[in-house]
Design brief:
This protein has 613 residues and is an alpha+beta fold. Helices cover 40% and strands 16% of the residues. It contains 25 helices and 17 strands. α7 (273-285) links the parallel β13 and β14 (291-295).
Amino acid sequence: MCGISGFLGDLNDSPNSIKIKRTLHLMTTRGPDSKNFWKKNIKKKNITLLHSRLSIIDPSIKASQPFIDEEGIIIFNGIIYNYLELKKNLILKGCKFKTNSDTEVLLKFLNKYGPSKINELEGMWSFAYLNFKKKKLVLSRDRFGEKPLYFKYQKKSIIFGSNLNYINSLSKNKDTINNKKVENYIKFGWRTLVSTTNTLYNDIKTLQPGTNLEIDFNLKKTIKTYWHPKSVKIDNNLDYENERLKLKKLILNEFDKKLRTDFPIACLLSGGIDSSVIASVSNIISKKKIDCFSIKALDKNYDESDLIKKNIKHIGCKHRYIKIDKDNNLKELIKLIKKTSSVVPSVTWLLYAIMCKNIKKLGYKVILSGIGGDEMFAGYYIHHLHYLESIYNNSYFSTEYSHWKKNTAAHIRSKNLKDFKSFLKKNNLKNKAFSEVLELSKYFKHFNTNNLKSKKYLNDKFKNELFKDLFYQSLPTQLYGADNISMYYGLESRSPFLSKDIYSKSFSYPNKFLIRRGIGKEILRSSMKNIVDRSVLESSNKIGFYANLKSFFDLKSIEFKRTLFSNDYINSIIKKKEIEKLLIKKKLSNQETHFIFNTLNMAIFLENRNIKN
């Protein structure tokens, strides 16, 4: 895991030594182990590549970046999970290696095949690769967008980087704030944060996952998509029992590669299916037991300690609870936002930050999380509603509806998510994923949901909702939060479920393989029999990784209120008096908690950019 940034353009616009030094200093957060840069003038153009390193595979100095050989140079953030297999094939073709790093394997692979075979890579990455002979810069991002890559076009140059502030640091002029993005985040929540290629700055874009951006030295730009997830089709002829066994084998094989590291691994564990699968499978595969960590819940509604206890007993690994401490959370949040030039997407990610901070102190460098499991296998409560809606006119709807009422709806606390008939009636809301934010309209001077459109990507209505969550609404923001926060604390965050082969499996399944008898993730549960504790597999109560805002902050304090209402632009769109009443409310709803936290985040972000409107 690392930080990357760079410039390609006219000599007169190239970053000077002051800008390079300043940017490398900013990049220390992502790469505390070493940092360096490479600068060269080629064909009356300048190319500058900067890198900061968090060493995970081969920590030797020889493996540091920018990594260069006689054919090309690369700066790389991430990990190539199948680097050993690729290296073996490259050696057979005559390639020689001087390190044990995945970075050198990636460079040799690109030298040999260019960007045309990037789809053979398995991993998470953002990289910039320059081929000396072809004089073409290739920027690439992994399939799911686990690693960020931003870029900005100027008149005679392009600047790119892992963080927004790297680009502003190298740029001639600081960019202006995207007010529409700010407003959507505060009003409609974290799902809007990374739903498009637009960012919090007007002229800085994010490179779409699964694509390459190729730039020649005339600054001609070409974007090429190397992965096409929409091409996967449902196969209604699949046999459930055969697929259950195939999925088990696939998960074991995929997770095995994702444990490759030269440093200790920690696993985040809740009482849910996804983290339980990762912890259980990883401890079966790994030669050394992987330690697990959980948040100590303060709210009984989010207490999963019984299932966690059963998990640990079943796995037989070391386990530690991490407690939430109110002290200094506001100062820590301000510092995190300022250093990463990003917001913390939701309260869930503040919990994640607390865990990362404590895990890093114990000497770990890699963490495993269950990100992506819900989107792959239909794990959210709203997925049940979409599924029921998709089979509404089928003969078996009544049976499935009854199972859902009995097995799942009984656990749901949100009124919006447990009332299927009300969900059907919300035809005026173009994207029902945002149905819960409607209760927040009273806190804004203007509130309109017309722009929250639902786009059709797949013909199957239910799979289309999962697809949107995977690539536009849910997963992108989760990965944004996981990457920014883990890197801030010097940790590499891995998400074992994010695999092109696991995706192809799950999206080829008939929908009834995913939700059956009112239970979500049905085929994942059944594939993990005798691997994950039975109590966890049979639990249909999705508790979630969450805590109330009052667990972190004193909402009545002068400091909290001053920070919350510190930005003039935000104050122009909210009803301040209504929110002041909200701060003294005895118990906040989930949506109210998220709303206050989002407003706080954005106020901190804007004030740290010295921008008032």
